[in-house]
């Protein structure tokens, strides 16, 4: 009979809580670096936010991106970007918003059609104005803020306020680092990316709540065990589940990133980074922070008379 594959041993004894200071230093550097990148480099907002023209075209022959870029570059339309997606016949054209009203935008699309000539099928043409773009930025920021507040309240009511603090710090860590990544690599930040950020928050809190559940269970079970040892035991007991869930999700996201085309690439990239950083923060940030929040264990529950886990005792005696 075949034995199940385990990426993490059943009785893992990784020194996660004992390594918390190193994790805190690395996370602080990551967050500060991300904030500096967003403030200095800035996000590469897509047409959704800064306004412009988006055209999706399909050519009868394999698209010559270089030639198309040369043809459109001479039209005097400002910033023009072309990106192949789907297959070699499909091209996404982004043009900065033209000065003037809707007539100016229509004139620009007509110029593009004339420059590309025959043999091109125009599947989609969209216009986004600057007012709408600003409203979308505000709506996106509001959505993220309300999501964080809702998660904080949920964790607070389900557990205790100390758990809510740990969860919200870990989530803020994930979101800020994702924004920093997009600022550094200058991938387009659009509505799909905002959706990815919200999904990251939901996924990360799911991991955190699973570990917190085990922490709460062990708080009732081991009354005499030092909190640091108890947290380490709880994390190690849930580590296999955490890594397997994250690993299988990453397999699907990598496939989307590689084969899903340009429309889904930025969303998939944000999700891949979010899954990795979210798993890290749930283990190395959310739980260790409980040591500094004055968390108390209930005294009215039956407990097991265990002061220190066996592997910790052996290490200390050795």
UniProtKB/TrEMBL annotation:
One of its GO terms (cellular component) is plasma membrane. GO terms for biological process: intracellular protein transmembrane transport; protein targeting; protein transport by the Sec complex. Forms a complex with SecD. Part of the essential Sec protein translocation apparatus which comprises SecA, SecYEG and auxiliary proteins SecDF-YajC and YidC. The keyword Membrane applies. Belongs to the SecD/SecF family. SecF subfamily. In the C-terminal section; belongs to the SecD/SecF family. SecF subfamily. This is Protein-export membrane protein SecF. Part of the Sec protein translocase complex. Interacts with the SecYEG preprotein conducting channel. SecDF uses the proton motive force (PMF) to complete protein translocation after the ATP-dependent function of SecA. PANTHER family: PROTEIN TRANSLOCASE SUBUNIT SECF (PTHR30081:SF8), PROTEIN-EXPORT MEMBRANE PROTEIN SEC (PTHR30081). The chain crosses the membrane at residues 21-47, 136-156, 163-185, 191-215, 244-265, 271-292. It comes from Thalassobaculum fulvum. It is found in: Cell membrane. NCBIfam families: 2A0604s01, transloc_SecF. InterPro entries: SecD/SecF_arch_bac, SecD/SecF_bac, SecD/SecF_CS, SecD_SecF_C, SecD_SecF_C_bact, SecF_bac. It is a multi-pass membrane protein. The gene is secF. Keywords: Cell membrane, Membrane, Protein transport, Translocation, Transmembrane, Transmembrane helix, Transport. HAMAP family: SecF_B. GO terms for molecular function: protein-transporting ATPase activity.
């Amino acid at each position: 009979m075949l034995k199940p594959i385990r990426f993490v041993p059943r009785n893992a004894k990784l020194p996660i809580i004992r390594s918390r200071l190193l994790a805190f230093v690395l996370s602080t550097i990551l967050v500060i670096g991300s904030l500096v990148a967003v403030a200095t480099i800035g996000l590469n907002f897509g047409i959704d936010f800064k306004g412009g023209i988006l055209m999706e075209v399909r050519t009868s022959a394999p698209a010559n991106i270089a030639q198309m870029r040369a043809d459109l570059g001479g039209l005097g339309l400002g910033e023009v970007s072309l990106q192949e997606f789907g297959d070699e016949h499909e091209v996404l054209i982004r043009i900065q918003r033209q000065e003037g009203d809707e007539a100016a935008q229509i004139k620009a699309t007509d110029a593009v059609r004339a420059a590309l000539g025959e043999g091109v099928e125009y599947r989609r043409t969209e216009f986004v104005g600057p007012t709408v773009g600003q409203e979308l930025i505000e709506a996106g920021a509001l959505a993220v803020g309300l999501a964080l507040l809702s998660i904080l309240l949920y964790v607070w009511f389900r557990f205790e306020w100390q758990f809510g603090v740990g969860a919200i710090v870990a989530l803020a860590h994930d979101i800020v680092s994702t924004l920093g990544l997009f600022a550094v690599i200058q991938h387009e930040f659009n509505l799909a990316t905002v959706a990815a950020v919200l999904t990251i928050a939901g996924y990360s809190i799911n991991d955190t709540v699973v570990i917190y559940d085990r922490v709460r269970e062990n708080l009732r079970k081991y009354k005499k065990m030092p909190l640091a040892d108890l947290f380490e035991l709880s994390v190690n007991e849930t580590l296999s589940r955490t890594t397997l869930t994250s690993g299988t999700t990453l397999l699907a996201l990598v496939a989307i990133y590689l084969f899903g085309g340009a429309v889904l690439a930025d969303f998939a990239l944000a999700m891949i980074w979010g899954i990795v950083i979210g798993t890290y923060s749930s283990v190395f940030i959310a739980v260790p922070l409980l040591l500094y929040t004055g968390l108390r264990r209930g005294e009215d529950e039956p407990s097991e008379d265990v002061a220190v886990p066996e592997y910790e005792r052996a290490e200390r005696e050795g």
